Amino acid sequence: MIQPIHLCIVGAGSCYTPELIDGILSREDADLPIASLRLMDTDPKRLAVMAGLSERMLRHRERGIPVRSGTRLEPLLEGANFVITQIRVGGMAARRLDETIPLRYGIIGQETTGPGGMCKALRTIPPMLDIARSVERVAPAAVILNYTNPSGIITEAVTRYTGARLVGLCSGMPGIRQELARRLGPRYPGLQTYCVGLNHLGFVHRILSEGRDVTGEAIERLCAEDEREATDNAEMALPRVTRALGAVPISYALYYLRRSDRLKEAADRKETRADTVARVEREILEESARPETVTRPEALDRRGGHGYAAITFSVLHAILHNTGDELAMSVPNRGAVAGIAADAAVEVVCRVDASGATPLPVGPIPPAFRGLVLAVKAYETLTVEAAVRRERRLVKQALVNDPLVGDLDVIDPLVEEMLAAHGLAFS
Q1: For a surface tag, which of 108, 147, 190, 325 has the fewest beta carbons within 10 Å of its beta carbon?
Q2: What pLDDT score does 230 carry?
Q3: Where does the pLDDT of residue 256 fall: very low under 50, low under 70, confident under 90, or very high at 90 and above?
Q4: Which fold has domain 5-170+277-320?
């Protein structure tokens, strides 16, 4: 019999918290036996709103799960089995800087990629290491399910510098694999899909049907169908990109593969994504604070991140029930991908059971995108080291390796401006 679990959410003032509560309510008690829910956030006002909504949602569905909340983490970690982390250091104001400053230098501004993603990591790694060390002290057997971005870089930092058990989650690659199963499953029995790469730079590079490799024909079928029906899939890249690579990349890859188009799109945008999200989040918080709101806020549909709860509880279920399910996530490489250090994070399909997540062997990255992945991996590892050592030199080395930057004439003034804007004191 599965023992009831205690679940702690760090960053529970996030507008994604109702999505998680909705995910809990979508599963039966026997499947997800939660004995208590602990909500922690450093913002007491947002925490009070989301704790109140969580209690009302659970009560409305007659789920007797007690909810505790607070601004101090360690008391809420006592006895915890799983910890979900979803923090955003600096909020939307910091995200807006990440998006706008690089644009002034002719570089993509984005919250998980390029200089913006790097600065988000530099701000976020120190508090995530503190959180992980608290888990290690108070609840050493607990598994951290991390959604804090940039997820792959956070995964590498925490697993390299602490002993906490952490896996990096993202709805992007699981969403692609689910879409491929929907579209290809009827024609290819026993469909299996495998990916290689990094978080927000992943590629489904191998498609099997009952053990037979059907990658080439399956990709051609997908691309022909997308061209015929003018399919606009937010997660997957364009057909001509997929054909060129011989793999199905996540749409984030287009920041690298169609840079000029993405840069023009950002420059022409009337408001930043940060501004859009901030407006939507205000609506979510207003709706969540109303006493009559007892279900997932409707405004959350415009926030993005669909599938967030589904992958979270799929991973939790696989660990709790020792299923051995094959799920895509970010983990230390441990020899799965050739040419990448054992303690560097990769996003691959893992076998998930009571022992955690074990990456399945991949071998070499296909040459079509190997150089891109290895360059971005070097940028990620240097970003982790820069955050831990707080050295400007390492920040600049990270951007030298980033394919979106790579120009010291730009890097020197860009780094100085971004560090100053975020108040990051690096030697």
Answers
A1: 190
A2: 59
A3: very high
A4: Rossmann fold (3.40.50)
